[in-house]
# Entry
Amino acid sequence: MNYSDNYNPSLSDTKIFNDIVKEKESIGYYNLVNQDTTPFKKYAKTVKQKDVVVIGIGGSTLGTYAIYKFLKHSKKLKKKLHFLETTDPIDIEAKLEGINLEDTLFIIISKSGTTVETISIFKYINSLVKIDKSNTVVVTEFDSKLNAYAQIHQMRRFEIPKDVGGRFSVFSAVGLLPLAIVGINIDDILAGARKMHDSFFSKGTSYSTLLKKARFFVEYKNKFNINVLFSYSSRLEGFNKWYIQLWGESLGKIDVNNSHQGLTPIGIVGPIDQHSFLQLVIQGKRDKTLTVVKVKDFEKPLKIAPITLEGLEELDYLNDLEFSKLINMQADATIEAINNEKDIPCDVITIDSVCESAISGLMYEYELLTSLCAKFMYIDAYNQPGVESGKIILKNKFKK
Amino acid sequence: MNYSDNYNPSLSDTKIFNDIVKEKESIGYYNLVNQDTTPFKKYAKTVKQKDVVVIGIGGSTLGTYAIYKFLKHSKKLKKKLHFLETTDPIDIEAKLEGINLEDTLFIIISKSGTTVETISIFKYINSLVKIDKSNTVVVTEFDSKLNAYAQIHQMRRFEIPKDVGGRFSVFSAVGLLPLAIVGINIDDILAGARKMHDSFFSKGTSYSTLLKKARFFVEYKNKFNINVLFSYSSRLEGFNKWYIQLWGESLGKIDVNNSHQGLTPIGIVGPIDQHSFLQLVIQGKRDKTLTVVKVKDFEKPLKIAPITLEGLEELDYLNDLEFSKLINMQADATIEAINNEKDIPCDVITIDSVCESAISGLMYEYELLTSLCAKFMYIDAYNQPGVESGKIILKNKFKK
# Structure
């Protein structure tokens, strides 16, 4: 008897881990945790403008927005960050309202340097305010055309390393520069990510947690093709959006066997989406895994007033309760309801508080998880060939 | 030979339509298009406060937010609408910042009258500002406990009809009252919905379009279990969120054959999510349908400045282009790229402009589509038994 096959080899945890260790030599995001942050902090100190406008889209903004949205209220930042991302004219106009463009720093971020949305908006801004090296800085690859433009105008330039993909770039200049400028502690940001890095690569807790999770997601990808991230804080809404890009764009690929693969990310927010999406999770088709993210301590003493509303006495059990406690009780009740169903895969991540290292650790964990899933799926997490065709079609429309 | 089965009967378009016509007698949302709006407009004229805070969650806020977000910038409204929805203490604090509570009207909206989030937040507000009939109005069922409270305090009350479910309530007092107060033309809102109602029930264009679409979604629900709504305007972000509740909570059910059913809604925004989710649609698993929503005319003359950026000459083809045109070209390029794949079901809805009747027509169309899908799926679109268990678990946590 003769037998041959074209199957790919089965994957042990050890093989996957070794592949990741090897990949670390050529994929830059893994190593951003150890970079020198001095240039960002030094530049940040020189910025006098009150408003900071990031012009970018996708990977150039989502990670920064996630961290900014999570921290901005708790940290009482002195400068405001704005994001111009879309070509929707009403949105552009609405976002610019109330910003004094004469007292604004513009950060133009584009890895390729020729992103249509980014350059279109930047040209529009040029028609509203004088753009020069005093109010504009550029973040791009060292040899991009945007870099050439900035060089001609002697603008300050920060580099996105070639081997760091857009959606994995939050811990490069893309995220660290604007965050440092508005007053977020970027060393704490990196420290949180580094802790997760070390835990994984030294085969600590994160090693086994993440491998188990990635293996589960991939093994059951045809049954559970949807991964729901249920974040119990409105402050994590930006994180949800970042996760959707990271997960969707990294894992939606044609695999080595030429088969369409993909795990579909959904981000929802608790308790709001208990009144929107939870019914579908509990009674709907069994096609979803659920990851609940909780914040242990919101560090806000807001309390429900201990008053009785006539007619509504039955709700007096809420009296004197801290909202921070209530929202976590709501999360726990949801988790219990899910677990009672017995056939909805669910895990829970609890971060300690609303601080820099908590959000960066969570984000680095998701980057690792994404890389691991891609390895299990025999796909390349770092390219995005599927969006090229639309870009070419758009360009051709102009040639007509 | 003997044969018997317990299958449900097969469903013709005529049967489904007749079922909907019959349902119209007991399900109230269908008929909201013909109601008298005088009480809302009359009350709106008496409101002196500059800020209006809606306290509610889920169906009590999502529809209103969808319309408000779509129109607020274009209509230059004189009053501002805010939404207090969540028990996240940071979010509550952040949203109240910058609002003068002494010059604010509070609209408390809860169908049941005992929603935990709503009453908790309302109690908290009671500890910040004196609440009485001069600054508070209530929207609830006529016999709820919240109604009793309002009655005791002689507060103005507006009714949510018993036969109108929360997620189908946007065209009741729930949406019309706050929208009228901030200056949106609610007669135009109803006119847009009514036009869609008439087109469907007189078996006009919408009849065949919607039946075809619903039948397709349900027939292929096991292959395409995810329905992506790709809205090409950031102004439609609220509409996406409303759609997610409507679709998820109505269609995620256990059917008449005791089987878990559900179509999973995803809302994304173009062109932003071309840089986030599109890769997954194009190359990922073939488990998604795509509906693209376009806005024909943004009525904003914003243009890309006709300047050359040295080094970036290759992008000069964008010069002098209106953003309104660019974003629609981007949508068309995406649609073309999707259609080139040949195996991704895709339809396109184009609304005329950023006006009241456009958004309400679109929303009513989605309400009808949801009802139709539910009929094809042998489920009840209007209940939500799956979320009750979590509520009971939460309540029990307080008894311990």
